[in-house]
Specification:
The protein is α/β, with parallel strands linked by helices and 349 residues long. The protein has two domains: 291 residues, Luciferase-like domain (TIM Barrel, Alpha-Beta Barrel); 48 residues, no CATH class. Helix content is 48%, strand content 16%. It contains 13 helices and twelve strands. It has an eight-stranded parallel beta barrel with strand order 1-2-3-5-8-9-10-12, surrounded by five helices. A two-stranded antiparallel ribbon has the order 6-7. Strand 1, helix 1 and strand 2 form a beta-alpha-beta unit. It is globular, with a radius of gyration of 20 Å.
Amino acid sequence: MEFGSFAEFHARPGYSQRDIFNESFEHVDQAESMGLDGVWLSESHFNPVRSVMSSPLMVASAIAGRTKRLKIGTAVHIIPLGNPLRMAEEVATLDHVSQGRFEYGVGRSGLPGSYEGYGMAYAESRQRFYEYLNIMNRAWTNERFSYSGDYYSYDDVCLTPKPFQQPHPKIRVAATTSDTFETLGTLGYPIFIGVRSLDMFQVKEQVDAYKKAWNDAGHEGPIDVSLRVPVYVSESKDDALSAPEDSFMKQFRRLGGQLAASVSRSGSEARDLRSERGAQLAEVDWERVQREKVAVGTPEMVIEQLNIMKDTLSLSGVVAEFNAGEGISKQQIATSLRLICEKVMPAFK
């Protein structure tokens, strides 16, 4: 099983934006030197108290230049916000800069805020998402191509450069709703999942549907499922169970509030489901979170919890949120990272 760090380039009170970049790049350097498999870059817009990561492909290129072996991925690039042909060019270029170390995680975002900031219709995001994927795949796999769709048309264009990896970097898609799991299984895409707004066994049902659709479509090989999950590891059990509580719970309550607020926003589908998930997160307590939504504890405890998640959700990878809620100190993050690499990862290799 592969292990990565969810690199949000998080803001901290009193930090300048230069400080944020410096701390985050230092974390990347630590991940490279300690042997972590990869870093996964989020995308965030118009939220300076949360993150400065508005341009993940540019940051990925910078990371490629300062590392030698670390896998670099996006988790996730919100593709309906851009031009699909331009994004295909940039991803192909980044694939060369990284010498094939890039994995392209994509999604459309479960919340409308970024779209509203850009003056775009969130209601169109699902249709745009699949059209964009189609265009990028055609651009990467054909010497020249033409296309006519609902949102974009191209006439006899040649994407340059073509990707370093052939036919293109692995594409991994964020899955949240049940119908999306089935669609992505049919299409044969690896997926990102989370257990933030549903319990682990509800997500298991979604993964089972993805696996069935994958097998029914005749795809070769096993399914490829990567879990994004908050992680805190300490040599002390008491510290591990108490230190991350405020920060991690802040993240769950914030997501609950965002889901509840999005119910009335233009273009938000599945309003009843959003309202229900938002209410559940507003009431979730730390004891329940520890059981099924995070991996916290000593290295031995984290190994046990990740094994449960691995077996339940058929995982091939874990993307650890070392600073979920933005309240984990720099030293605590470094300690968690070290213990993951030295004492947790070897149990899964």
